[in-house]
Each structure stands twice: as structure tokens, then as C-alpha cells.
Amino acid sequence: MDTQAVQKILVPIDFSESSMNALHTAIGMAKRQHAQLILLHVVNISPLVNNKDDGTMISDSNLQTLLDTHQTNLRKLADKITNEEFIDCRAIIRTGWVCPEIVRATVDFYADLIVMGKHGVSGTKEFMMGSNAFNVLKNAYCPVLLVPSHRRFEAFKTIVYPIRPVEGAIQKYSMARNLLRENDAELIVVGLLENGEKASFEMLSQETFKLDKKLKEDNLKSQTGFYYCDSVVAKVLEKTTDFMADLLIITASIDHHIQDYYVGPFVQQIVHYARVPVLSIRPKPADAFVVKSINEDEENSEYPYPVQMLGII
């Protein structure tokens, strides 16, 4: 069986409205998929790191108090979810730079999915993606679900699945199938061709045919449409609105080059302006994995600071 089961969901928590709203979505997913929730809070140490070449940390007498406070709050939140929602919910607190620690935690705890708000406490606009969300999206090796904060998303009943004329465009159907089954949802397959790409219609037809065959074999609800457009981004957002979708799934093969998928304008614009949660799925990483700093000032260096992990609480 190739269904991609979600057994562990990592939820970064900074106690902002955005992260708590994303947690609400994650709780619903965990209940439907019988998954474990792992709450992660990262105490950002960047203000505590000296600018010296050796990267030594400035002593801060308030750090332990801060850690104790967050540990207590996180434990209370995890206990509340366990007792009220009957979900296996764990809590982890770490010190470090936020994005690298989120990425590291997905590997350390074998997370199948990250669910997080599109923006946190930085005060970004309602539908715009924050820098933490964008960096996690670029670097996480498991799927990432980014949830806007303007309303709560209890379940996913209509899922938009855009595909382009690229081989392997349906390679991540297994996770989509899992979501469709658990939510009794309908999949809206949006076949996209930019004006002038008529020669690629045959490849797009082949990919959609493969997907349609799998959907019929799995007895899942779906419908497929083909669209020529000047802007792929605009058409995806338009169809998400037209079908009143509550989830948008983007796969790496929607763009022509995988390396452009995470840094190019397509994903940035989709996640920026989508008014529904966006699930981003990328190819599996190589066996070797080294977490590097995602801090803008340390872009090309290994971690220059000691990482403190307080463990599961």
C-alpha cells in the first residue's frame, strides 16, 4: 500500500493568534488520522548571540526564567489537548534560531507533516507569508501545511490540485488520497497550460489520465478541467475561489525546475495570496542530511552556537 499515512504532526507554536489557529487545524487532522501531535516552541537566541567571531553567547539572567515560563505554558497546552481532544500530544521546547530548529525537529522526531501559521508575531499582513514560514517551506523535508489566520479551517471538503505538463506531476498523490479519504472530500484537478504551450497538451493529458485512473480505482470524488492562461498563479487562485475550495495542494512538479519551486515566484505568490491553507510537498531528500543555518546572517555556515533541547515534556 502506497498511501502516505500521517502519523506525526509537528506544530510550531509561538503563542501568536496565527500559530494557535494553525494548531486548531492540526488538531482536526490528528483526530481524523489518529496521529500524534508534537508541539514545538523555539526560544529565539539570536538576540543573545554576540557578534564575536567565535559566536559566543551573551549571558542572560532572564533566559532560564523565559524557558521555564514557556515550558510551563507549553505543557499546559499539551495536557489540555490530550485531555479534551483525546489526542496523543507531546511538547518540545528548544533554544536556537527558529527556522533551523523547526527543520531539525522534523528529522529528530520523524514528523510526517508540519502545520504552521502563514505568519507569526512579526506583524505581517493578513494573507502574506512571513519569513519564518517561507524559510521552513524552502528547507523542510516533509510536507508543510501553511494556514492563514483570517478564519478557522475545521476540515477539507474541496481540494484543488493543480498540475502542469511535467512528468511525475502526480507523484505525491498518495498524501492527497489520504486527505480525500479522511475528509470525504472532492479533488478538483486543475490542468494548466500557459498560452503558447499547446504542444505540451498531450503530456498534460497523459498526466491527468494517470491521476484520473488512480482516483477511479480508489473510488474517490473528483473532477478535472483544462485551462489555458496568461498567469498560472492567477488561474490557480481563481479556480480555488470558483470551487470554494478549503485546501490547495502544490507539488514540486508544478514548476518546470524543482530547484526553482522553493525559491521562485510561483510558490511565493500562491502562498502569499491564497485565502485557504496551502499544502506544499517536495521530493524526498537524499539519505545524507545536514541542517545548516537559515539565519540570514549565517546563510553559509554551520550552527555557530550551542543548541539547548529541553526534551519532550
Automatic annotation (TrEMBL):
Domain UspA: 7-148
Pfam families with a match to the protein in the record: Usp
InterPro entries membership: Rossmann-like_a/b/a_fold, Universal_stress_UspA, UspA
Family in the record: Belongs to the universal stress protein A family.
Protein name (database record): Universal stress protein
